[in-house]
Design brief:
The complex is a heterodimer of chains A (157) and B (204).
Chain A: E1 5-7, E2 12-17, E3 21-27, E4 31-37, E5 42-48, H1 65-79, E6 86-92, H2 104-118, E7 123-128, E8 134-139, E9 145-149, E10 153-156
Chain B: H1 9-34, E1 39-40, E2 44-48, H2 50-56, E3 63-73, E4 77-83, H3 85-96, H4 108-133, E5 137-139, E6 143-148, H5 149-160, E7 167-176, E8 179-189, H6 191-200
Antiparallel strand pairs in B: 1-7, 2-7, 3-4, 3-5, 3-6, 4-8, 7-8
Helix pairs in contact in B: 1-4, 2-5, 3-4
Classes of the chains: A alpha+beta (157), B alpha+beta (204).
């Protein structure tokens, strides 16, 4: 990547055009949703904390899978993407303290997948679950998503 | 319900006092465990979000050991101890004569020793709160994660973060001989429990 890298904090999202990129550090149970339009060479990254905004009255839309994905898609369309061109790569949703049963990470993964299906955006790659943290970045020039974990090294999606 | 990000001065003083007593107890427990004199600074208390706490601990990708203990009884919630590499290597050197160069390479024995340290330190704080409030609080078995601090902090953030993002961090400095090491403790009572705590002390 030759441009600058925009940092996306927890419960935040943003869009970048080639040659820039986006990065979210240290996702645990959070999920990073990378959307990409390869024609427009525009990338989006959303870093969600929780699966579902519906139980809460006043919410930060960027915090929840359901509302954040909608907001990211809108932002990408405004930036010049076509919704039909968007593809998704997702990473995160870990179970850091090895709880048994369905964890918040599992719920986040499921909510992200459901919302992307509802929006008609195909998930073309994923690196989810496990019990370790991940740093996720996307390059708007190539659409390559890089996932870094302390014990697993670096992989490209 | 009370918002930890919007507490008044009196309420902040109560939390500081819990931090002071708890840190004193923790120093006593540590000196027994490490079989040596431990002295402490007055702990520093910060109320900040997960990103702010990551910065205190060397940035979100910095590797730390996090020991998590759930509280049950008159106060429900959780405690999370975060120990950086310096603290871990000091503790494991003294306790097990283990040299830690990288947190990934800690032995199984080292991991269980760290878990136990987290357990004992949690008990020190819980005793402080119980004494101050005449409360009965029990602790569940501790759990440990050794990974990026930002990723570890996702857990409390996901439990408490639906409505608000601020967490309370107690930064402690322990001195043992020539060495100094820090421990960072997040005390996270459920909002209902925090209300009850302040209300009992006439601070609500």
């Amino acid at each position: 990547m030759t441009g600058k890298q925009i940092v996306i904090g927890i419960s935040d999202l943003n869009v970048a055009s080639s040659p820039d990129g986006l990065i979210s550090y240290a996702l645990g149970s959070c999920v990073g949703i990378c959307l990409y339009d390869k024609i427009a060479k525009i990338a989006g990254l959303s870093h969600i904390l929780l699966p579902d905004s519906s139980p809460y009255k006043e919410v930060m839309p960027k915090k929840f899978a359901d509302t954040a994905i909608k907001e990211l898609i809108d932002k990408m369309i405004i930036a010049g993407c076509r919704k039909n061109n968007l593809t998704a790569k997702i990473a995160g949703g870990a179970n850091m303290f090895s709880w048994s049963g369905e964890t918040v990470g599992d719920k986040n993964i499921k909510a992200v997948q459901n919302q992307l299906i509802r929006q008609g955006i195909p998930i073309i790659a994923r690196d989810v679950g496990g019990d370790y943290g991940r740093t996720v970045s996307i390059d708007a020039e190539t659409g390559i998503v890089t996932v870094k974990a302390l014990t697993k090294g670096i992989i490209n999606l | 319900m009370i918002d930890i990000g919007k507490i008044n001065e009196f309420q902040a003083d109560i939390l500081k006092e819990i931090g002071n007593i708890g840190t004193g107890n923790a120093a006593t427990a540590l000196s027994l465990m490490l079989n040596g004199r431990i002295s402490i600074d007055v702990p520093n208390i910060r109320i900040t979000n997960a990103d702010g706490i990551s910065q205190v601990l060397g940035g979100p990708e910095n590797q730390v050991a996090g020991v998590l203990v759930l509280m049950r009884g008159d106060i429900e919630g959780m405690l999370l101890f975060l120990l950086d590499k310096n603290a871990v290597s000091h503790l494991l050197k003294v306790l097990l004569n283990e040299n830690v160069t990288c947190l990934q390479d800690i032995t199984e024995m080292g991991v269980s020793a760290l878990t136990e340290i987290g357990n004992i330190l949690s008990g020190s704080y819980i005793n402080a709160i119980s004494q101050l409030l005449d409360y009965r609080i029990t602790l569940e078995a501790p759990r440990i994660a050794i990974d990026m601090v930002g990723a570890i902090l996702n857990y409390p953030a996901s439990v408490f973060g639906a409505m608000k993002d601020e967490l309370m961090l107690i930064e402690e400095c322990f001195y043992s001989g020539q060495d100094m090491f820090r421990s960072n403790l997040l005390i996270m009572p459920e909002p209902v429990s925090l209300d009850r705590m302040f209300s009992k002390l006439g601070a609500l």
